[in-house]
Design goal:
Helix content is 43%, strand content 30%. By secondary structure, it is α/β, with parallel strands linked by helices. The longest helix has 17 residues. The protein starts with a strand and ends with a helix.
């Protein structure tokens, strides 16, 4: 069964792992929004994401939106190449790579 996890590794840092795709998007969206709302600015390390698709990119965009609503900053590190390619053709690359 596919799985996704988001763990807090520091007060301002989260690490994502597993699949971030259509099968896990709803779960990942809920987990991320809960984690983002807890503290200030956050960095999400995506180096542990093994699979990602357009649904996963949509989750990342929604997390950014939730961060804006919460008044906190959100930045991604180590975005998987396949997700960057999807973001690039969707004109969302700057949103995922902003610093």
């Amino acid at each position: 069964m596919p799985g996704f996890a988001l763990e807090r590794v520091a007060e301002d840092r989260l690490r994502a792992s597993g699949q971030l795709d259509f099968a896990t998007a709803a779960q990942a969206l809920r987990i991320g929004i809960e984690a983002i709302g807890r503290v200030g600015d956050q960095v999400v390390d995506l180096s542990g994401v093994t699979e990602g698709d357009s649904a996963g990119v949509a989750v990342l965009v929604e997390w950014v939106s939730a961060a804006v609503v919460a008044g906190v900053g959100l930045r991604y590190e180590n975005v998987p190449p396949q997700m960057l390619a999807i973001a690039r053709i969707s004109d969302l690359e700057d949103l995922l790579l902003r610093s």
